[in-house]
Amino acid sequence: MKTSIKTTIKFYILIFFLVMNMNSYAKESTLVESVTNWSKSDSRNMNYVEENKKIEDGKNTYILKPDGFIYKIKNDIISSTSLNSHTINIVFDKKKESFQRFISIVNNHLLYSMMREEEINCDKFKHHYRLYALNLTTGVAEEVAKKEQPYNTVGGCYNYRDIFPEPIKQTWTPLKDKNYPSSAYSLREDVAYFELRKYLFKQNKQVSNNYIPYLSIYRKKLSSFPSKIVKSFQKIPFDEKKWTGLTTKKLDSTEYAFKVKGFIIKTDNKFWVINEKKDMAWLFDKIDTEAEVYQFMKMHEPYGRKIENSYKKTSLGYDVKQVQIEYKSEIEVTKNGYDEYLSYQLYSTYIYHINANGKFTKEFVSTESKNRRRSKVLTGLHGDPMFGDSRTPDEIFSTFGGVVRP
To answer: What are phi and psi of 36, to 5 degrees?
Structure first.
């Protein structure tokens, strides 16, 4: 009986190791198959750069940067440490340009290829390809395959840049805060005068009909209209029921904030009101000047962050690179009656792709923390960054110039 039990146990142990070996062989076989398919593939389909290319394995997202480093992304935040320990330049001994692309993720290995172009003479080139498998557990990258492909240019020797000139690389132009003249905008033909007004609210309730006009764009100044029209225009009330959130300008207080609306005098002297962000594109007919891009971005500016914008023209409109700088402070540990803080600046970069008609998409690029420092504060002695405000509306208005009192 005992012999029979021992025999049975040995049998199941043998079966277990056979299954494990088969699984291991199947995984290895899948990886080998992917490498083999890459080796047999047409290399000409790989002759381009995939900058900031992303790939997922069902659990994590990875990004391939132009410098050849691979990073893991979690909750839209890119890890500060790369998974691979080498870059393209090191791999190819800093010879010529190098190109890279993701291939696939197989059996916990991320496959990515690199290509270097070698010029033999003016009409002959050779492409050198190498395939790497990055172990996502250990972070070790190994070369698993390589190949070469020579090719000739058509038409013999010539300077191909004369035939296919390099596209002009546009640089980012800073979009700084400044007062643009009316001539910097292109108003619709049926708009004679436009202004944005700030109305004061306390705890989300309007406290005064007074307002501050802080942006005026016009074909003719407000003072040039008949006084009857000016008085009627200035008495147009802020209708909360029709306010859809053009923008809000908060003060350093929990009590007060300015809500913004736009008001128009058309060429037939009729009054219109702008309630929504998308109406700004309607106002300019299309967004096609730097000043209009600036005002468009002001409408989409997040509160409580320092903003650095830069732009460049595209075939569809504009791209705006926005860097949002947020000041962070976290308690790391409380020890011996002190709270130990980590303070830093969080730089988040986005690209706004803005069409001339005002439609846009927002693309996340990267997040990076800078200027990290540690400090200690006695537990319980923390100042409240937000405070109540005992000032009256008139005292608030008195700190601003140009208040209109209808």
So the answer is: -65, -45
